[in-house]
Amino acid sequence: MTAINFAVIGYGGMGSYHIHNIMPNENERIHVVGTYDHSEERQAISSQHNHKIYSSLEDILQDQTIEAVLIATPNDSHKELAIQALKAGKHVVCEKPVTMNVAELDEVLKVAKETGLTFMVHQNRRWDPDFLITRELYKNQQIGELFQIESRVQGANGIPGDWRHELKHGGGMLLDWGVHLLDQLLFLVDSRIVKVSADLSYILGDEVDDGFIAYIIFENGSRAIIEVGTTNYIKLPRWYLKGTKGTGVIHDWDLSGELVIESDKQAIQAPEPIQAGVGLTKTMAPPSEEATETKKLSNVSAEYDPFYKNFYKVVREQAEPVVKNEEVRKVMILIEEIFEAAKKLK
Fold it and tell me: Nearest-CA neighbor of 227 among 218, 242, 216?
């Protein structure tokens, strides 16, 4: 087994996370040779980990020992860096969002096809345990056919970092967390999108969105609410799933939550009215004890390889990529549709 020699372009938060937290899991397949970053301070930190320090992008591209590069830089630089690396004969792993728009992605994919080299986007949230639980519920229909999927991430710290506040660098939460949630959704639901409604939030006064809500309807009848918020001091559940036979909730990444599933319909009793405010209701009364059963969430493992193990197999063994470029393109198309849908509300 011959490891793939990597150089990492961008030794910031994500670049260093790859090097120290993800790539070591595949140390027989992936070997980090060195890094390049505009910041001398980050380069100094990288050198403390015995990485080779490249003084320029050209030094990486001219190094014949480097087979692949990881691009972990601000969003607006992805296209040019990817094209240069591919033309220099390097395979490419690119952080998300892959590019600023679909047109830029098409330029990159054209070069990847011409060179015959591997280009893959690091859509790491396909391996999140909460998503894997949701995906299993969608497939095994434990709570029936899922007809409404609500996927949210919320916090109260505003837009993180510096360049993520700037439009020219591809800032904003739709291109940040949004690309993750939308990738999960399209990886989950294999159906054509027939309608998109959306609203973007600019409550913090930045030139880019600090959050958004998107309502997406699929041809198979499934509906999804995708929401990202950075001004939420009380968070809604990470996942809220409505099925034809029950409901599931995953509160957070700690995997707290439960499934409530209908039981034997023959034993279900008619609901008794309850006091609701200053009135009575049967509609919103809780079901009888015989009507439902509550189950814990199950641990679920991905049936596909981890990202870098898969990348290695794609390069060395011509395996099928877990993150396909046509899937990435569909996500970018959906992002553009959300931006357009939000404009209609202004």
Answer: 216
The string of pLDDT tens digits covering residues 226-259 is: 999 999 999 999 999 999 999 999 999 999 999 9
Please tell me whether residue 157 adopts helix, strand or coil conformation. coil
Distance CA 220, CA 188 (A): 13
Instruction: Report the C-alpha dihedral over residues 249, 201, 96, 164, rounded to 10 degrees.
Output: -130
Contact, 296 vs 258, CB < 8 A? yes
Total Cβ atoms within 10 A of residue 201: 19
**Hey, what domains does the chain have and what are their CATH numbers?**
4-122+305-321 (3.40.50.720), 126-303 (3.30.360.10)
- Interior angle at CA 38, CA 34 and CA 44, nearest 5: 55
The pLDDT, as a whole number, for residue 265 is 66
Q: Strand, coil or helix: what is 259?
A: strand
Q: What is the DSSP string of 53-102?
A: E-SSHHHHHH-TT--EEEE-S-GGGHHHHHHHHHHTT-EEEEPSS-SSSH
Reduce the DSSP state of residue 23 to 3 states and report it. Answer: helix
Of 6, 176, 159, whose CA–CA distance to 75 is shortest?
A: 176
